Amino acid sequence: MDLYGRIHARFILTARGQQLMLQKYLSEEFGRCPRVYCEGHPVLPVGLSNKPGKHRVMAFCPKCQDVFIPPNTLAARYVDGAYFGSTFPHFFLMQYPDHVPPRPDVTYSPRIFGYKIHSSSPAFQAPVAAIKDSTLEDKDQKNFQTNMKNTKKRKNDTADAMVIEELDDEAANSKVGRKS
User: Fold this and answer.
1) Sign of the torsion angle spanned by Cα atoms 28, 33, 34, 38
2) CB proximity list for 37: less than 8 A, separation 6 or greater
3) What distance in Å separates the CA atoms of residue 108 and residue 40, rounded to the nearest whole number?
4) CB-based burial, 64-102: b 16+ in 10 Å, e otherwise
5) Is 39:47 a contact under the CB 8 Å cutoff?
6) In a designed cystine with 63, which of 38, 48, 83, 176 is the match (CB 3.0 to 4.6 A)?
7) 121-169 pLDDT, tens per residue?
8) Regarding the domain delimited by 2-99, which CATH topology (the fold level of the hierarchy) does it fall under?
9) pLDDT, tens digit, for every residue of 24-68?
């Protein structure tokens, strides 16, 4: 079974394999994304590892670009993820760029009695995309500036340490020079 799986992982990257996978993708044979804002977009199979026996096959949603455990009703719960590989969905979308969906316009924002949870609350969890791509708010700008000052201070401390090391090296060289 392992040899068949490795051959399958290579085959689905060929032109013929991509065509067959496109048909399965369009007929939604791999399932749909469970996220509400993806509106049931079709998913692609992906392996979290290329080594057999590590993980079972997962479902990758091209719309939200997240990975999910496929429903138990699918036979996918018994298929090793290495039989699809970690490359397949991304390579597939590069081959068929017209099937790359736009990201969801709306994201879920947790609220209590209609108010957003403040970022200082322990219950607040910033979305990953917001952490990577967000513009800095006033509070974050102050934190950013404080961190920059601390970084500059560390650089100055490092520079001072380098000067001390240079002085130590010069002193050592002068002592060596005296012994000669």
Assistant:
1) negative
2) 64, 104, 105, 106, 107, 108
3) 16
4) bebebebeeeeebeebbbbbbbbebbeebbeeeeeeebe
5) no
6) 38
7) 887 776 654 444 444 444 444 544 454 455 445 545 544 444 445 445 5
8) N-terminal domain of TfIIb (2.20.25)
9) 999 999 899 999 999 999 999 999 999 988 888 999 999 999 999
Answering whether pTM is above 0.85, one says no
**Beta-bridge mates of residue 68:** 59
pLDDT in the model for residue 148: 47
